[in-house]
Hints:
Layout: H1 5-18, E1 27-28, H2 31-38, H3 42-54, E2 58-61, E3 65-68, E4 79-84, H4 96-106, E5 109-114, H5 123-129, E6 132-136, H6 144-152, E7 157-160, E8 171-174, H7 176-189, E9 195-198, H8 206-221, H9 240-246, E10 251-254, H10 257-269, E11 279-283, E12 297-300, H11 303-322, E13 333-336, E14 339-341
Parallel strand pairs: 4-5, 4-6, 6-7, 7-8, 8-13, 9-10, 10-11, 11-12
Antiparallel strand pairs: 1-3, 2-3, 12-14
Helix pairs in contact: 1-3, 2-3, 4-11, 7-8
Amino acid sequence: MKQPLYKKIYAELHEAIVEGRLAPGSRVPTEKELSEQYQVSRITSKRALTELEQNQLIYRVQGSGSFVRELKEKKATGRILFVLPFANDLSLGNFTEGIYPVMQEHGFELLMTPVDYLEKTTAAELMQEFDGLIYYASNTFSYYDLLFECAEKHFPIVTLDKKLHEFDFPAVMPDNFQGGQLATEHLLALGHQRIAYIFGDTHHPQSVRQRYLGYIDALKKAQRTFRTKLDDTAASIANALAYLEEHQVTAAVCENDLIAIELMRALRQADLHVPANISLVGFDNIQAAALVDPALTTIGQNFAEMGRLAGNQVIEKINAAKAAPPVPTETTTHLVAVSLIKRESTQLKE
Length: 350
């Protein structure tokens, strides 16, 4: 989503004020000056100045112009923001079961929002409105500009599901490597010799790479020579039927439950049956995994424990930031154990 032009002007002036490049009492560029600088209409520049005034960042003097107000010291809001990829994403679990008790214990209010909220706010506004952020990272590169600004100000942030290696944010993640091991070891124990890994597409996010490495580790320990290559585009869901047939695969570990369910559908259309012709294991234990026919064997995440850890981590960082001088906290990555959930999509190799 493209940022409105007045928001761009507002954000840059806001940042200059908050960072002190426009000091209290200093004159702010006029509507005309902003129009020329940004190549926009006077209406657009006026709207940016009006929002700055409404948010108590500048004041206007008739006949003299606009000037920067003395900023008040940020006060604790008692609110923590929890950003999710989508409000009703069926592949996401119930983190709140673990987060809410932590929030109640420490007297914080938790606000949940889909990630597009970050399109509509600036880093300065975010830090003003909230004491901390729990950020479910659907990928490892979105909103880097906003996160960088927050990191520079030591704003308390904890990431869920992925580690953002360029930042020192604590991370809470499922043990995806262990998940890949458990899924593959289960199929090996059922007597399968040729076990494939089926990807969603050719882009492999951090979590998928870790699951894949767990798959490779289990095959290596079992001394199985057949394995799917990470860069093998034939092993994507779009080409999966031909790949399974070509390599005489009898079982597959799928990138996630949605891919496994899609593969089930494709196999059924080809008059192949799960688990009679091929056994399947998914990841994530989404609600649909237990409802498909046959019910899907999968790797379950402990979402409640992940939520509890994320809540405790962000509150620890908030409390450390309140101390005078601020207390440094150790940057940690918490790996939360996963579990194998056996259902009807796997069986002994005949």
